[in-house]
Amino acid sequence: MKEQLKIRTKVFAHNCVKTTQLFPNTYLSNHIKGQLIRCSTSVAANYRATCIAQSKPSFIAKISIVIEEIDESNFWLEFARDENLISKEEIDFLLKEFSELTSIFIASRKTASSK
Hints:
CATH architecture: Up-down Bundle
Oligomer: single chain
CATH topology: de novo design (two linked rop proteins)
CATH superfamily: 23S rRNA-intervening sequence
Number of strands: 0
Largest sheet: none
Radius of gyration: 15 Å
Helix content: over 70%
Order of helices and strands: HHHH
Number of helices: 4
Strand content: under 5%
């Protein structure tokens, strides 16, 4: 499961980066591109860090960062859609993956917190 999530988070980051290439070249979209690239790649990088956490508190702290970053990724995707920088159809698959990954990460944090 851990290796599959490493791959999924990395693919999520790649897909977010590729999606930003569809945005128009405007001041607003360039700002959103930077933010989305930063937080979506952070999801993948920080998830990898959870895999080598040396204690339960460290794991919980790191998975909490992953949850924050994926939620921020979702915010920027929705914001880009709301500003008509990209169509709903072009990001539906990312929003679906966001939802699935978020559920997994939240469940992992709950499990770790309750043990």
